[in-house]
Amino acid sequence: MSRGLAVGLFFGLTPTVGFQTPLVLACCLMLRANFLIAFASTWISNPLTVAPLYLAFNWLGDSIIGPITLSESTTSSYPWLNLFLEEGLQMTIGSLVLAIPAAFLGYLLAKYWGPRISSSFPTAEKP
Q: Whole-model pTM?
């Protein structure tokens, strides 16, 4: 359960919308994590929260690495590189700054508090 939560939070807080499910599935298979928990926790980025999250990622990345400027010859030859470096790199850096600690904290919370919470629920008696 704890690995699944960590995987889901990590991919839920990265700009991978549209690719989250295959990435989560592959990661869960490699780490033997709970796919259902991971899939459910990726919904931290949903249609209502994706715009504010991406703006926060971009702002955070911009404040960490600052604006990136390329020479005119590079931007005219490779316009896609300019777009990626101006927006994508900052968004990726900003998302990783949030996703890595969130995944770590989610793992710890689920690992140590999860059993305590689940043990407080009554269990059904076997007939």
A: 0.79
